Amino acid sequence: MKRLVMDTLVIAERNLVRLPRAPDLLLAFTVQPVMFVLLFRYVFGGAIRTPPGITYANFLIPGIIVQNIAFGGFVTALGLNEDVHKGLIDRFRSLPMARPAVLAGRTLSDVVTNLLSMSILTVTGLIIGFSFSHTTPLEVIGGVGLLALFGYAFSWVFALVGLLVSSPESANSFGFIAVFPLTFISSAFVPPQFMPAALRAFANVNPFTIIVDAMRHLWIGQPAGNYVWGAVVWSLVIIAVFAPLAVRRYRRAAGV
Amino acid sequence: MSTSLPADQPASAGESADELAISVRGLSKSYGKVRALDGVDLDVKRGTVLGLLGPNGAGKTTVVRILATLLAPDAGTASVDGLDVVKDAAKLRERIGLAGQYAAVDENLTGLENLTMVGRLYGMRRAQAKARGKELLDRFELDEAANRPVKTYSGGMRRRLDLADALVAKPPVLFLDEPTTGLDPRSRLNLWETIEGLVADGTTVLLTTQYLDEADRLADTIAVIDHGQVIAEGTSDELKDRVGGERLEVRLDEGADVQAAVRALASMSDEPPVAEDGVVRLSVRERHGTIVEAVHRLSEAGIGVDDLVIRRPTLDDVFLALTGHVAEEPAEGEDAE
Q1: pTM of the full predicted structure?
Q2: Which of B78, B246, B290, B323 could, after both became Cys, cross-link B24 (CB 3.0–4.6 A)?
Q3: Domains in chain B and their CATH numbers?
Q4: Which residues of B touch A14 (CB under 8 A)?
Q5: Does the interface predicted TM-score (ipTM) exceed 0.85?
Q6: Which residue of B has its CA nearest to A17?
Q7: Average pLDDT per consecutive 10 residues, chain B (337 residues; last block may be shorter)
């Protein structure tokens, strides 16, 4: 167990050290989200109806942060895929290190990068008119914690994807084909009550809706219902399902 | 290098296990319908180099992957340093080093960061791992590049760093999977000298290669592998003796009648001469007078000769004689993957 923690930290440190040296990746979770915030706020914002009493800036920021956090695990998918192709996974697997450490280190370093992009997005949000309202400092911090947990859970999904797909490009298309629709057909950008019936039905059961509503509840006091525990449970379920699958896949992973 | 001398080994291991660093019996592995390994037996004595020689797809990489605990065999047993590669895999990983043809180093880390990471994953403390890393960088003449990201390294430097990674824990057994594939001749020679140094210090090496000169130079014993089976084993000289005596190679003038040349020379050899790309090759019974005789026969037949040489058999000849195809010819199917 001690070995697992040590090895996980070594791998996480490695991922973080190399990050600033891969500038394209760095752009992906710093500049890109800011661009999306600005586009949504100023291009779509005026045309999207929000529930009464909520400005679009307040509606948008929790939603777009959740979407970004879901994409944060992307760094794991790309990184693992690269490690498999470069033969580094073979090296790790030939070392007397704890078996799950490569994946645990990956997902752990994602938490750090997620916190970074979360801060960038929150600051951007505050600049374009978002404000924490009907909330307490504890709830704001709780929101950060929930985002970190949810992002961590999604990193395990991406860990499995990174080990399964044949190239970084395929990992990329998984992101766009699976995660994009899931986040758009949720309460993240548009209130589901304004969607066509079929989409609304999907959006209402979409886990992303639960996470986004939990975030809104914590940061802007709406919607009134408490979705936080639902969001926590969803995150834990995702980890419980995908972490063992990813570790199992890792044990059999083979280099080029 | 902390080499495991026989005296360091557990007494219970028995005498033969003491002498053998690697022992493989009946190893088989299939990928779907492709039989990558079909009953491989190998023995490697401590402190020696076994060259596993074969074309792409022969199964060399599969052997290494199984011995390095990356892959479980379908059948058969293998032990390295007295430890079973399946049952004792976790323990064995502390006793082996692996360097591969793909130079498994992190391009975005510096040389020193790479080595320190590997050291820590072997369970060393940070300072200890760093010190060991510096030691290895000095030894591999990478000290000046120690703090540069690996993506700025040349191919030869990457291979040296990869090899250094494999040596971090001073493993008594080292697996080198095509260590010089794709390297320029100077880097190759350089790496050969490094490997020779390791062996001189007592490390046991299993080396796969498709280069005959590499096996010839580095390996104490050579196992020729083709279609997942060991088809010949012995020292370089023993293998060459199996092919027979001197080789005569005649390069004909462009447009010369190759078949006529083969006919003219046939009775000089016990086996039919082989013609390829305007070159006729045959083994001859004796060196003395052979060139004069060959020139005489060819000029009598009116065949122009561009070049003519007599030489000892190479491992190329061995491979051709054993497998019926030349070593570089890629076999069908991927190697190991």
Answers
A1: 0.82
A2: B78
A3: 6-240 (3.40.50.300), 246-312 (3.30.70.100)
A4: 106, 109, 113, 117
A5: yes
A6: B109
A7: 41 56 95 91 95 87 93 94 94 93 86 97 96 95 94 91 94 93 86 92 92 89 92 87 79 88 87 85 81 89 88 76 63 39
